[in-house]
Write a structure and sequence with these properties.
Blueprint (H helix, E strand, L loop, with lengths): L3 E2 L7 E4 L2 E4 L9 H6 L1 H13 L5 E2 H12 L12 H14 L5 E7 L9 H13 L4 E5 L12 E8 L5 E6 L2 E6 H7 L4 E7 L2
Parallel strand pairs: 2-4
Antiparallel strand pairs: 1-7, 2-3, 5-10, 6-7, 6-10, 7-8, 8-9
Helix pairs in contact: 2-3, 2-4, 5-6
Length: 198
């Protein structure tokens, strides 16, 4: 796939001995509740790592950043199911790391008639990637699309502006989905978040 992507996707590579991962995995958390509900803090940790400008990391370093993120992006009983909760927690996480940021957020309501157009959503994601920030994506309902889990945050790192085909990181792997198809088929919506530096 050719399209717009963050400049240094290799920053999100993780090594564990002879095993290589693309991005972080919430299954690396130690506690059961963290592994169940930790998608939001995991994605915030990935954004933090990328915006720090550091290179690829080993698994132990990724886990340390994930635990740091959990302190700020702490899921409630329903997880981190709103972009506002994600933004508030991640902004505090970045502030604690001395990274001043401003949030750019696009919400996707559950009502289809209130949603942004596919073109608007694709351009919003592309704008974030052009700003060299991987885009946090909250998917509350996948609409039956392969590889997307309901009620889940993932990290978008690449998108084709013409087709809406996008690449995201989840579970330490790379996956693809079509953003236009998701907008049409999702019953509950979600949202997108990326960051600029003032």
């Amino acid at each position: 796939m050719t399209g717009i992507g963050v400049a240094a996707q290799e920053r999100l590579d993780v090594c564990d001995g002879m095993t290589a991962y693309a991005g972080f995995d919430q299954e690396w958390y130690g506690a059961r509740w963290q592994r169940m509900a930790g998608c939001g803090p995991t994605v915030a940790a990935e954004q933090l790592w990328y915006l720090r400008g550091q290179g690829s990391c080993d698994k132990s370093a990724a886990i340390r950043v994930m635990e740091e993120s959990w302190r700020y992006v702490t899921p409630g009983a329903m997880g981190t199911h709103k972009t506002s909760a994600y933004v508030d927690g991640a902004r505090a996480l970045f502030a604690a790391s001395a990274i001043p940021v401003q949030a750019c957020c696009l919400n996707v309501p559950d009502r289809a008639d209130l949603r942004p157009s596919a073109e608007m959503a694709i351009q919003f994601v592309a704008q974030g990637l052009r700003a060299d920030c991987p885009v946090a994506f909250l998917n509350l309902h996948a609409g039956g699309l392969k590889d997307l889990d309901d009620w889940h945050w993932v990290l978008v790192v690449e998108i084709d502006e013409e087709t809406g085909d996008a690449v995201f990181l989840d579970q330490g792997k790379r996956f693809k989905f079509n953003l236009a198809d998701w907008l049409e088929r999702s019953r509950k919506g979600g949202g997108f978040v990326w960051w600029t530096r003032p």
